[in-house]
Amino acid sequence: MLARTAWQWCARRWLGLVAVAGVVVTVGVVLGPELVGRGLLVDVNLLTRFPPWSAGGTHIADTNICRSDTVDAFLPAMAEVKRSLVSGRYPQWSPYPVGGVTLATPNSGQFSPLALPYYLLPLWLAPAWVKLAEIGVILAGSVALLRRLRVEWPLGLVAGLAYATSGYMVGWSNWPQSRVGAFIPALFWSAEKLVQERRARNAHPVAFVVAAMLLGGFPSVTGMALYTAVVWVLVRLLVLYRRERREVARGAAVGALGLALGAMLAAFQLLPFLDQLRHTDLSYREGYGASHEPLQTLVTLAAPGSQGLCIGGQGPAPIIPVESVTYIGAATLVLVLVAALLPARVPAVRRGVTPLLVGTVVVIVSAGWFGGPVLAVLRHLPVFSNNPIARIRSVLDFLLAVLAALGLRRLLGPRPAGRAGRVGRAGRVGRVGRRLGWRGRRLVWQGALAIATLVVAVLSMVAGVADARRHGYLDVFVPAVLGATAVGLGALAAVVVALRTTGTPRRLAVVAVVALVVGQGTSFAAADLGGSTSDNFYPVTPAHAYLQAHLGGERFGTTDFIGYASTAPWYELRTPVGHQFLDVSWRDLLQATDPDVQIVPTLTDFTSRNLPLSRVGNDPLLDRLAVRYWMAADNLVPGTVRGPSGVDGQVAVQSGAALRCSLPAGPTRGVVVTTAAPLTASGPAPATISVEVDTARGAVTGGRVLTTTGTTTGTTGGTTGGTTAGTRVVVPLPGEGLSEDGPLTARVTLRGVGATALAAAGGALACGTVLPAADRLVLVQSAPGATLWERPSSLPRVRWASRALVVAQPSQQVADLSAGVPGDTVLLGPPVAGAGGVGAAAGRSAGVQVTRDVGGDVEAVVDAQGAGYLVVADALGAPGWTATVDGRPTALVTADHAFGAVAVPAGRHTVTITYRAPGLVLGAGLGLLALLACLVLGLGDQLPRIRRGSQSPLSG
Questions:
Q1: Which letter does DSSP use for residue 124 in this model?
Q2: Cα 701 to the chain's mean position, in Å?
């Protein structure tokens, strides 16, 4: 009896059980291990591609280099925001990358509701829970929208899963972009709720969803989604209430109110962002809205891996999957065609929805992949004008998922007669669809749509094959397309069964279709997201540890992604480069140092071809930028090699066993040994060699990675191939301060190598040394992976300038600084009136003690023998910086082209320089007003209902 009851219960709720099972499977497969800390969702494994992490023995080849932004920009920014909030400071300024950047804008999505796990959980665990929250919001929004359209909630779950595993939502994982996209279903739910009810209270959902999207930090997708939602509202109002203009006007007015309140709720971040836009060079984006996506990328709608997914160290050619994979699923597309091509009786509330969805999809595909007149119109609209049109695939994927749910509803058979749903005044909706010539128009519509779909599919496939042949990735393209074709054919067969049968066969066919939708989406998401190992979550290498102990408020530099300088904010280290929007003046100084420093508009890193180690110590601009330390490859040791001499044999080497040799007296930068046999690796970990020298002041150590046969070093700073017999191996050793007395004994140890031998002299290991070069560098730290060099000529970041020169032209300022300006002199541009003038610099020295240097607050006590300038070598040209001397406001003038300076009179004074984001206070006030307005509107709408309840005879 119990079993029969359970079977009957399951039979009545079979669709819900299938949908819930799909959710459980997807979450379990894609996120299960990462949710409990057995692996990391963020792609930190890619750090092992770069020195010094590549020397740590945990090199992971299966990384996704195309999601590097999440590792070197967004997660470090979230760490800085969290550190600020924990310390009791509102995050407004990060001093670490590119001279400092504002944190008061939503660029990192730090105040999106979906960012909450970052503040409640460890940062290594939070990304998985953020993704889970995104899936939850998507499912809730999808179910809510489809329930509004009189579609069963299990079908909403299926649509939500299709969108949650779409190319946009998976590809942009761990960026703020996916946090914005997750609210698209809720946006359309709030829009449909507004259409159906048209009450003042309906502004609340719109406002909160819009605010959440604006705070998500990806305005292009927010704008594109809002454009589409506005079209949805207007068309739906006109279809449902075209004879009632007051209802249309009321709905439009409530929608406009919701948009305005949403913008006000997010104004505390939106106003600083708009101010930043006014002072950011975005000229490189001027042509973004003019071009459409390559047609072959449409193949990724069904076959996400047809152009590669950038997994396993695969490069970003021929496309960047994050930007171009539009996947929604082969089975999902079959359901879309069912909804679009097969007629079905629908409730009045859903009348016109399918044509609206199909028409919007046609417009999006036309503009995004064919361009033409549609794109020509859109490109002149705000948002579309300076953003790639391909980002509208976030909306496209969701609309296709909704259509798929409607197609699945069609497979379930006719809906039982009942309430069609209350829409406006009873009976008036029924007059919308006049039947005059309806069947004929439908046949024309179906035929045109079927032909257009076939043409687009054929053209996309032809373009895909041609591109795969041209770029040589047919071995990737063909299997992906064949797999997607198999899924699509399976879904098509199940659709045919569902349409031609009833009862259990139909149910099984529907289950098969749902399984194919969920299965392909889960497989794609699991493969693309992968998982990193916990050991690779921003490891602190010896180089990082040294900088954290010695760098203080100064900066370090590097070339060719050694040390991956963009990640420096995670370690709370300052660097002149990074992955951020650049202040224009700061960019001028960087490009004067290295013309190729700007890799892309938002990513900078020095290059060794323009800034070799031999030049680093003598560069005046690096001095001005307060670059105190330089991280270099561990195989670079400039200087004069001395020895080894007297080689007359060889000594056997055992991995991990130390060999001793004698070093000549005097300063040295390295120890030199010579191989007597080829070096081979004994395991997966990189082979290394280390040297340790005992002195009266303690041990001096150095090391480097060895290139062994059959292995390669990191992607930069190393060489491929093997180390053959007779190769001279130089091991960096920070011994420039060693005593002239000697000789000294060095212990040389090789690890991770097979049986080999080194050259010997008199039966003992033969060693030579490297004499320091006259390059104004001092080797201070050496370990396998990277070396650190101190630049004693570097000027302090917060320094005293006793002299000032006025140079009128900015370009001349850069030229003079590149040629070299005395360290006690600051370059000022006119006018200097009101800032003390040139006469304020008396040429006398001063003591400077920095008493506070946190975030956007710099405070220093200056004890000056004469007037001069306190110079701060940060990007203080951004609006929002103010200065005081002894608590009295004073002018903050531009110094050395990109920095800031304050005129200080003789005597002892306290100087403060502070950043306060423009518009922050006003934005917070507008947000409070918006919250109050929402409360008033909500209470005003509920008061009549409350009064009626209080007058009920059952009340009291």
A1: T
A2: 38
How many angstroms separate the CA atoms of 285 and 403, rounded? 33
Angle between helix 267-278 and 203-215 (nearest 10): 50
pLDDT number for residue 829: 86
Residue 60 CB contacts under 8 Å (≥ 6 apart), including other chains: 45, 48, 532, 533, 536
Percent of residues in the chain assigned helix, strand, coil, to nearest 5: 50, 20, 35
- Residues 874-892 have a mean pLDDT of 93
CATH number of 642-711+724-772: 2.60.120
pLDDT tens digits for 348-372?
Answer: 788 889 999 999 999 999 999 998 8
Are 744 and 663 spatial neighbours (Cβ–Cβ below 8 Å)? yes
Listed in order, strand segments (DSSP E) in 523-663 are 555-558, 578-579, 598-600, 603-604, 627-632, 639-642, 649-653, 658-663
| Element counts in the chain: helices (H) and strands (E) | 28, 31
Contact 483, 303 (CB under 8 A): yes
User: Is the link from the previous residue into 347 a cis peptide, with omega within 30 of 0?
Assistant: no
- At 715 the pLDDT is 40
pLDDT value, residue 153 = 95
Tell me the C-alpha distance between 112 and 127, whole Å.
14
Domain(s) of CATH 2.60.120: residues in the chain: 642-711+724-772
Give the global pTM. 0.91
Q: Which residue blocks in 432-541 are alpha helix, DSSP H?
A: 438-471, 474-500, 503-529
Pairing mode of beta strands 825-828, 803-806 = parallel
The amino acid sitting at 142 is: S
Nearest-angstrom CA–CA distance, 891 and 310: 50
What are 231's two structure tokens? 């079209």
Where residue 58 falls among pLDDT bands split at 50, 70, 90? Answer: low
Give the DSSP letter string of 173-201: TTSHHHHHHTTHHHHHHHHHHHHHH--GG
**Six-digit token string for 176:** 């703020």
Q: What angle do CA 219, 368, 181 make, to 5 degrees?
A: 35
Query: SS3 of 664, please?
Result: coil
Q: What angle do CA 310, 315, 320 make, to 5 degrees?
A: 60
The tokens of 198 are what? 């048209």
pLDDT higher than 80, residue 835: no
Give the other-Cβ count within 10 Å of 418's Cβ: 8
Q: Is 885 in a helix, a strand, or coil?
A: strand
Contacts of 106 by beta carbon, 8 Å cutoff, 6+ apart: 112, 176, 214, 215, 216, 217, 266, 269, 270, 273
pLDDT of residue 945: 57
Query: CA 185, CA 194: separation in Å to the nearest integer?
Result: 14
